[in-house]
Write a structure and sequence with these properties.
- The complex is a heterodimer.
- Chain A is α+β, with helices and mostly antiparallel strands.
- Chain A contains five helices and three strands.
- In chain A, helix 2 packs across helix 3.
- By secondary structure, chain B is an alpha+beta fold.
- Chain B has 25 helices and 21 strands.
- In chain B, the strands form three sheets. In chain B, strands 3-4-9-6-8-7 form a six-stranded mixed beta barrel. In chain B, strands 14, 15, 16, 17, 18 and 19 form a six-stranded mixed sheet that branches. Chain B has a four-stranded antiparallel sheet with strand order 13-20-12-21.
- In chain B, a hairpin with a 7-residue loop joins strand 17 and strand 18.
- Chain B starts with a helix and ends with a helix.
- Classes of the chains: A alpha+beta, B alpha+beta.
Amino acid sequence: MAESQMNLLQGTLDLLILKSLALGEMHGLGISRRIEQITKGTFQVKPGSLFPALHRMEEAGWLSAEWGESENRRRAKYYRLTKAGRRQLGAETEQWARISMGIASALETS
Amino acid sequence: MTRLPRVSSFFRNLFHKAHVERDLDEEVRAYLDQVTDEKIQSGLSPQEARRTALVELGGLEQVKEQVREVRIGAFLETVVNDARLAFRMLRKERGFTAVAVLTLALGIGAMTAIFTVVNAVLVRPLPYPHSKELVYVQEMNPWGLSPFVWNKEFVAWRNQSRTLGPIAAYMVFMANLTEGGDAERVRCGMATISFFSMLGVRPLVGRLFLPEEDRAGGPPVVILSETLWRRRYGGDPFVVGKGLTLDGKAYTVVGVLPASFVIPDSIKLDYALWVPLAEGGAGMGPLRLAFFRAFGRLKSGASLATAQTELATISKSVMPAGLEQGIVLTRWQEQIVQSYRRPLLLFLGAVGLLLLIACVNVANLLLSRAATRRKEMAVRLTVGAGRKRVVRQLLTESALLALLGGTLGLAAARWGKDLLVAFISPNLPALEPITLDYRVLCFSLAMALVTGLAFGLVPALQASRVSLNEVLKEAGRGGSEARSGFLFRNLLVVSETALAMVLLVGAALIFRSFLQVLRIDPGFKSERILCVSIHLTPFKYSTPKDQERFFQQVIEGIKSLPGVQSAGGGMMSLLADRPDSLSGLALEGRSETIASGSSDVISPEYFRTLGIPVKLGRDFRDADRDGLPSVAIVNETFARRYFPNENCLGRRVSSWVHKGDWLTIVGIVGDTRHTVESDPDPEIFIPYLQDGPLLSSMTLLIRTAGDPRLWESAVRNRIASVDKDQPPYNIATMEELQAATRTPRRVNLLLLSAFAALGLILDLVGIYGVVSYSVSQRTHEIGVRTALGASRGTVLKLVVGQGLCLALMGTGIGVAASIGLTRFLKTMLFGVKPTDPMTFVAVSLILLIVAWFACFIPAQRATRVDPMVALRYE
């Protein structure tokens, strides 16, 4: 993916991570797989983008993390939404809806 | 609300770094393990699974680094890390660091020292209250601007002006101070009360003037300078109320000024004491003819132009027709520093060139070092550092170097500043104190940072642009540099040679001017002459007869001293331009009058003492005195200009002393140059014992059998034995006086030469560095050449040729740049054109010889390359 596209999708990645964690806590690989699944394969998040995003969001207080055990009994770090994270998800969803509506209507009229 | 987690993360990242790092490492590893597990489950072998997982991940370290970059406080952390690493690198390579830091310290230190002076003179406002509003009044008369104003005008301005707030006046005069010690001639100031209040001075002891003292007929009071107070009164705290005699008049001391009090002026004068100006009053003489200067403070809202118009209007209303003149107001600081701006900026420019050369050298060093660190860079990039990150690291290193250099330079400047100021003070106006203030500090700091970035950027970009494959493949060869590196390095050498060329040409032109000045024949012989000036107290010696008698006795007394070969005297100073006093004088039998020329009143042995030859006719004798026909001697220029192709002996010129009297020319003497800059004027001399003008002062010239200083006390005694209250002053040998007139030139010369010499040395080091680096890089190639039969001479030519080629290009560019720049030197030159071809050729040769020398040493080393060793080196 070209760098310019990455920048454009920075906010999108945050929203997707928040959304994928809305159903419950999950480790890094799980989040990556979930995003691929819920976007029907449109987005494949590489670890080089995923981990910086997770850490940034954790530092922002949207996510909390703790170590747990994965399905195949390996140690893994699990992320979950905090209250602030849920609020952020709400806000970003709303904003995204506005943007996509705006863009959709713009595309229709042309 | 959302701030809090960020803040705590910040501290966690900062203080529990090990923990945070371990956590990150485990997390990424766990991810890798999970992906590997999945791959194994899908049927891959464990090894293959791990490899594909790693590829998918994109490198453990790279991911970790990407996370680190987004962490809160990452910027701060990188800066600290970079600085720490940079510091370690610099400490490891002590030799490199020392050379780089010293080079930078030299450049920045010199720049800071010069800027300290520039700041004090040109940048900082005058150190007086509301100094920006202080304006200086000058009159525009047909001959140009004059700083002196008329008393009548001044009083009218003071009373009527609405644009100037307070307005002050002061003037300088010399007087004989007696009582309280030996008689001495001192420089005195005369000032209005407002003068002191506008300059914001407070007395150290006693008080300043009172209004009733600054008024015609007011009580005669005096304020001492700190120096005079210490010298003559031993710093007596109870000096107030004591009396002193100035030119025979009694004064009472009312106060002492602090030592810090300096009158802003374009030349520094020491004032021994101050008396009230008492406009229109008796004061020290007829004020209407006095040379007094005025300055005022612009009222808020008034502009320079409106004030100027107003003063001119007021002037016109009070001055008699024909005497009214134009008024020109200038900001006081502007007025003072005008003539200093260009030389100071020139020095700043020269030292700027030096700093540039220093930067180029350091850039060169960094570049060579970058080349040897290519592998390190490659490794860093391989293990996950981004290019930006590497550049930043390298820039941190150069910034650290620059800061170290800057600190050292600042320390050196702080110490060297006083030395510099003491050295160039003859070329500075009186604007004290010259200090390292915050402006200088900011300037140096900014300079250090800018130079750090400037010389670090290209080497850093160069170093980070490595192709991983190539470097790692080259492993065995030690890694040779990319072509662009060589190019850039060559460019550096060319540019620093060009810079050095400009500096050298400037210094050489000044040097040649100085030689020209020394070569000028002043027209008299200056060795073994003691000069002593005497100014007679006016009321005691009020008639020409009294004055002549005094000087006659003094001269006879001195002549009778053993070891004195001859002694004479003249009214005018020998080493200063003389005013035009002859214009309009009639020549007998001619319709034309004398256009211009100067005059002097001298004693008979004057010419003999000075060794000025009498070309035709006779010298004056003791018999040339009152009662006989008035005689005169002219110089050759006079004779040539006014009596071309005819004998002027016996011709007559009308006297400027007594109207209607005629002077018969009895002799022609050789020309004398009073200053280096001016050609000899037509001059007329008349004997002092002849019925002449007032002869209130004379400079005695005494030719002695040895070091003239040895006769000083004997001469003083002879003068005191005639009248102890007529103190001799300006006692010096003629050679000292001549040297003093050359001081400003010598200062310019030495300063510019020092810059040029440093520039040349840095250039030498730079060329040497580049050539020896290139030799070390080409060891292999040279080995091959030698093995294939290249002789020592060929190798030598190869290496020296390469270096000289660069130097030649630099010299060429330098010549072109110098042709453009040396015209700024014009006012400092004498007898040499700014584009003097000989200077340019000579300097180019010097530079090329130095460059050759710088190339020769590494070239010699190249010839010693043993082909076997060089080839095995591979």
